[in-house]
Amino acid sequence: MNILLQLEQLNRETDPESGRVGVSLSESKSRFRSKSTFYPTHLRDNIVNMFQKNVETELSLLHETISDLPSRNNLTKKEKRALNILKNDHDIVIRKADKGGQIVILNKSDYVFEAHRQLSDRETYLPLEKSPLNLYASELDALLQEALSFNIIDDKLIAFIKNDTPKSAIFHHLPKIHKKERPPVGRPIIAGIGSLGENLCEFIDHFLQPLVLRLPSYLRDSGHLLHSLNNYQWNLPNLKWASIDVASLYSCIPHDLGLQAIEFHLNQYSTYDSNFITFLLRSIYFLLTHNFFYFDKKYYLQCRGTAMGAKFAPSYANLFLGWWEELHIYNDNNHFFDNIQYYGRYIDDIIIIWSGTDEQFNDFIKYINTNNYNLQFTSEIHHTSINFLDITLSTFNHSVTSTIFRKECSANTLLEATSCHPRHSILNIPYSQFLRIRRVCSEETEFMSKSTDLFHRLLDRGYPKKNIIKAFERAAAVDRSSLFDRYKTCDSKKSKYKKNVHKKDNASLTCILTYSPQLNMIEKIINNNLTILKTDPILRQILNNGHRFVT
Predict the structure, then answer these.
(1) Alpha helical stretches, state H, 391-543
(2) Handedness of CA 252, 257, 259, 263 (dihedral sign)
(3) Which residues form the Reverse transcriptase domain (predicted)?
């Protein structure tokens, strides 16, 4: 199996007439609409008023009943006291670890020092004297109004993209405790929830996604990798596992090269017309050059790369590397092409099956590190097995074998069985976790070993032993090959994308509720009063299609 086969497969999967992919703007418009505040009061009648009054009265009675019940705190006095001490200690910072799910407590001085160390990189971050929010908001408005004048977008889309009360994005970093440095270095994150460009990021990402999915190196997750290696025959001499990591991918991409990469994919492989492509490129340029944030009473502008935390950042980074791969991996310029028997990539993590010597692989790494894209690669090569994402890959009898891989710093992050979540969700967690092990572990002995480990972790989180055993037996009975069926659509990039496009379900009415332990009683109150609405012929016809409750 050579990477030539990946290219041939891609040619079969794209549009045979044009080789292009994309999504329709007109069909996507319903995704990008602001929440309506319209309420048709003129359509209300006595029947609707009676229904509402009865439901509200019964809900009030339920609230009074619940309020009278004795409450029980799920924290001990010592735990509450400890939390208050930590909360009021302004000399520490509490963050989730970058990987492994651990909670990390750092000296605030060390945390701030690491942040300033990163922000002192003047090629990536530029200090600002004041917030540019108002200026940038007017520039975004000008960009949108120009697109409106050319009928590229409409008023409703502008209303979605614009945020009337935008907030500044906030910089923080996640400690990389899996690395050797102490105090740990941090992974920079720019949290842009409610920021000026948040909705524009979502819009851009929607139209870049089909281009990402058509990349020959694209890996959706570790399950997709296992599916792609399912029938691989490890029968050539001198085969080895290799992994490559792109250093600081999100923050290393020069704006001009990033835009050049996106323009290449849009022009070469998309179905979008020239006006829409221009709007997408100008929007991406705006997001890249107006990515400002706040940290420690100062404003900064990111002048290289994209923010890790921006909705479109993974697509942008994926397409940048996809452009580089097309020019330097899947290309005659790559003199090591025949050595690469398999090549897959999950964002910035690359896995290779290498045919050749270690010295040849080192020469290949030197080749890819000699570039004008500001890309730097680190690598590992292994003769027998390799850890990649959350799996360990090895070989047996000329076939690829796999098992679960957990980092030493990994915590037990399974949801507590006593957590205030829908009961069916909690009860399904053991089964879904055993099913994941069933899919990843190719050998029965590994399945049993990893299941034993999971069994104890579930017990530690308060799951009943009987339920755990039942979930294990249920997962063990599943045919492992059937667990890869969902990845068959991954092999057809267009099919997978269509599968993920939201389709409105008109079959029944949906009542969206916030979960509470009283959810069943709330549903019962509403259901009992639906007979009032059904006295109206029109409402009865609507309700006859059924309804459902979603939390």
Answers:
(1) 423-440, 444-460, 465-476, 493-500, 519-533, 537-543
(2) negative
(3) 155-400
Phi–psi pair at 533, nearest 5 degrees: -65, -35
Characterize the bridge pairing of strands 547-550 and 509-512.
parallel
Q: Domain coordinates of the chain in residue numbers? A: 92-216+250-307, 412-492, 504-551
Torsion on CA atoms 504, 510, 516, 518, rounded to nearest 10? -160
Task: Please count the residues of the chain.
Answer: 551
CA–chain centroid gap for 367, Å, is 31
> Which tokens sit at 340?
């690469």
For 31-56, give the secondary structure using H, E and C: HCCCCCCCCCHHHCCHHHHHHHHHHH
Residue linked to tokens 């022009």: 267
Which letter, b or e, does each residue of 473-497 get, where b requires 16 or more Cβ atoms within 10 Å of its Cβ?
Answer: eebeeeeeeebbeebebbebbbebb
Is the predicted pLDDT of residue 107 greater than 60, yes or no?
Answer: yes
First to last CA, the chain: 46
Query: What pLDDT, in 10s, does the model give residues 158-176?
Result: 999 999 899 999 999 999 9
Per-residue pLDDT tens for 466-491?
999 999 999 999 999 999 998 876 66
